[in-house]
Fold:
Amino acid sequence: MSAQRHPIVLGAGLFYPGGEHITGWRSPAAEPDRYLDLDYYAEFARTAEDGRFATVFIADELYVWDRYDSGIDHGVNIRPEPLTLLSALSQLTTKIGLAATVSTTYNEPYHVARKLASLDYLSEGRAAWNLVTSASDEEARNFGKDANLDHAVRYRRGEEFVDVVQGLWDSWDDDALRYDKASGFFADRGKVHVLDHQGEFLSVRGPLNIARPPQGHPPLFQAGASEAGRALAGRTADAVFTLGSDDLAAGQRLYRDYKLRARRSGRDPEAVKVLPALQPVIGRTLAEAEEKLRSIEELTPEQVALDLLSHWLGEDLGARELDEKFEFDPDVAGFNQSKSLYASIIALLGERDYTLRELYRTVLRRRFVLGTPDSLADRLATTYEEHAADGFILMFPTLPDTLTDFVTEVVPRLTDRGVYPAEYAGDTLREHLGLARPGSRYAA
Amino acid sequence: MSAQRHPIVLGAGLFYPGGEHITGWRSPAAEPDRYLDLDYYAEFARTAEDGRFATVFIADELYVWDRYDSGIDHGVNIRPEPLTLLSALSQLTTKIGLAATVSTTYNEPYHVARKLASLDYLSEGRAAWNLVTSASDEEARNFGKDANLDHAVRYRRGEEFVDVVQGLWDSWDDDALRYDKASGFFADRGKVHVLDHQGEFLSVRGPLNIARPPQGHPPLFQAGASEAGRALAGRTADAVFTLGSDDLAAGQRLYRDYKLRARRSGRDPEAVKVLPALQPVIGRTLAEAEEKLRSIEELTPEQVALDLLSHWLGEDLGARELDEKFEFDPDVAGFNQSKSLYASIIALLGERDYTLRELYRTVLRRRFVLGTPDSLADRLATTYEEHAADGFILMFPTLPDTLTDFVTEVVPRLTDRGVYPAEYAGDTLREHLGLARPGSRYAA
Structure:
C-alpha cells in the first residue's frame, strides 16, 4: 500500500431490500417477509461492519414503481425511509458510516440540513448524504407537480441546495456554545450566523437550530453521471458513485475526469473519492458464478425485464416484437429521467444489432460482475492500483448471501494484498474515507 | 378505577432540552453540554418508561429564536431533530411511545407519512405524530416565504394534510403483501391504492412506498386551542394537548367541548384523549416547592422574560416602562402566531391592572404547578376523576431532577390510588392510550 494513498474504500449499497436484482427477493436465501424489520437491516449493516466497509449506502426513490403492472406484482416497492432507518441503525452499529439518499428536488434544505446534522450527532460522526435529483414523473406527482423538473433545472437546484445545506451547517461556529451556568450565557452571539440565502430556487434565512455537526459537514456522495451531474460532483462531492465498467481504460478516463473537475474547482483531487458501483456474483469457480447468475435471471419474469427497459428508455415497448431487430430513435438531449443510464443503453445499440429480447437481457445482465473470490479481489485491487477507482460501492444482487460471501471470501484477499485496512482507522466516516473535517465558511 | 374508563395516560413532554423553563439549563442538576448527546435523551426516555409514561412527546419549532438578542444569549436554541432522535431512541427503549412534532405548514405529506410509518415499523408500533402548524415569521423565512401563513389558512392546510397522510398510510391493505417466492408475486395489486388527492393546498398521487403501519395510523396528537385548532382536533385528533388550568370547572368545560366536537364529527368521544399540560414544581413541602420555583425564576434574566412576552404578544415591548400600568390594545382576530396563548394573556389583563414587570412575571409563573407528591398526585387524580382530563402531558421545568422526582414520588401515589397502571398494558402506543387500531379507508 502506498504511504500516501488512502486504502480502498467500500460502501455497502442497498436499494431493493432483497438486493440489487429486482427479483432478488425470490432467491433461496432471501427473507422477503423481513423487509420492514429493523433486524434485517441491522444484520446487513453489522455484516458490512465486520468487513470494515466505510459506510452503508441506502439508495432511495420517492414513489412506488407502478408505471407498469409488473412493478407492483413482482417488484419490492416497500422499504424503510433512509433517515429514520439509519438513525435506528446508529444504535446497532459502532463504526460503519450511515449514508442516506436524500433528493434535492422535493425537499426543503432546512429540514435536510437539520436531519443530517442530527444523525451525525446521534451516530457520533458517521452520517453522510447521498445527493440525488428526482427523475420520474411519478415522483413529481407525489409532491404537487404534474411532471418532473427539467434535467438542467434540477441540477441547478441541486447545486444551490447543497450550498444552502452546507451554509446552514455552518450556522454555529464550532466554539459558539458556552453553556455557562454562572453568567447565564448559553451561546456566544457573535459566533452564530444568519445565512440569509436568496437564490434562483431557494430563499432560506437560518440559523439552523442545531450546532455544527461532529464532521463539520457530513460527507456528500453523488451519483450523477451526466455532464451536469459530473460538473456538480466535481464542484461539491466528497465521493462519487459511478456506474462502473468492465473497461479499465474507460474507468481511468472517468476517474481522471472527476479529479480534473475537482482541481479546476480549486479542490484537492484526493478529496473527491471515485467509487464505481460493482455488483458481484461470486462462485467458487467462474462456472458456479455463471450458474448463480442464470438462476437469478430465471427468477425475473420477462415482463419485468421488458418493463424495466421501457422505463429506462421512457417509452412503452410492450407492443414491440420481441425477436425482431430493435429500432430506436434516441433523443439524449430531450430525455428527462436518468440521462446517463439512457445514454449507456443507446451506446449498446451503437455497437451491434439487438432484438428487444436480447437488449433487455443484456441491459440487466451487464450490471453484474461474475467472479471467484480470487478474480474479484484481483479486479478490485487492480482497478484501484491502476487509478480507475478509490474504492467501490458494492451492490449485492441477492441478500444476505452475496454480502456474506463478499465479506468472508473477498475482503480477506484484499487485506492480504495490502490494499484494504485490517481494521477501522478511526471513528468517523470522514476518517474511514480519509477526508479532513472541513472548516466553516465563516472561519477567519 | 372504573371498569370502563382507561386509566390516566401520561406523556413526558420535552421542548427545551434543559426543561420547560427557558433557563432551566442553568439549574443545579442541568447538564447543558449534553444537549446533543443521545444518551441524555435516552436517560430521559428510560426514566419516563420506568414511570409507565405512555409516550415521550418531543415538541419542536423550525427556527432559532433570535427575534431578540436575549434568545441567543440565554436560551437553548439547539436540539436534535425529533424524527431522527426518536428513531434512535426506539432502540434504547422497549415500551414507551415516541411522539414527534411535525408541522404541516412547511412539509410535504409524502415525506411525513413515510417517515412516521417507518418510525412505526422501527419501534414496532410506538410512533405518534404531534401535528402543529408553524406560527412565526422566522419559520416562514427558513422555508422560502416572507411571512407566516394566515392562521385560518394554516389550519385548513393542516386538516387537508392529515387527510392526505392518513390516506397514504392506507395505500397498502394490511394483507396486500404476498412475498410468494414460488409464484413470483410480491404484492397483490388489487390491494394497493392510488390516493390521487387533489385539494386546495396539496396534490398527491401515491401510493406510499411503505406498507400500512403496525398501528394502522400512528396516533395523532394536536395542541391547537383556538377555535380552528379545536375544530381540527375534534374531527381528527386521537389525543389533545391542552394548556391546562388551575380552574377545575374550566377544565371540565374544555374537556366536554372536545368530546362534543368528536361526537358531532361522528366519532367515539372516548377515542379523543384530552391531556392538559402540567408543569410541576415538586417539594417535600409546599414551601420547598415555592423556594424551588423562586430559585428557577432567579436564573431567568428579566430581559428574557420581557422578550418572551414581547414575542407572545407580537409587539416589541422593550421601550415600555416596566413599573407603570401596562396598557395594551388587543387584536385577537388579527393576531397570527399562537392565538390561544395570546388570548390567555389578554384574559389576564381583563382580570386586574398589571405593570409590565408584573405581567411578564405572572405569565411565566402561572405555567407552573407547585406541590408536594401528595398534593400533585391528588390534583392529577381529581382532575381525571372529575372528567377534566384523561391524562396529562408533563412538562418538566428543570431536568433531569423534576422528571426523576415525579416518577419516584408522584407516580407510585397515582398507582396506589388505582388511577394509574402498575405496568404497561400492551406493546404499542395505541394500547397504552386505550385506542383501537383503525381500519383502512379502503376496507369494504
Notes: Chain B touches chain A through 74 residues (CB under 8 Å).
